[in-house]
Amino acid sequence: MEQVLTTLKPGQQAVITRLVTDNDTMYLKLMEMGCTPGEAIAMERIAPLGDPIVVSVSGYTLSLRKEEAMHIMVGNIKLN
């Protein structure tokens, strides 16, 4: 089942399935940050107001704005 990255709860892990955007700049930015299809990603923390979020991907910790994270679709979710 595929869903948006922002639906994960802290401690949950998933695999990036695809990036959903018509904006080439956003697509390239996410790819450069290591958010590539097939890559494992884990939700680490969510700010009290929901923005930004902190994830682990490609061997490092990454802070993403909710607007950016909405472009990342994930699947194979592991419950904590």
From TrEMBL:
SUPFAM superfamilies: C-terminal domain of transcriptional repressors (SSF50037). Coiled coil: none annotated. PANTHER family: FE(2+) TRANSPORT PROTEIN A. It holds the Pfam family FeoA. Residues 3-76 form the Ferrous iron transporter FeoA-like domain. This is Ferrous iron transport protein A. Keywords: Iron.
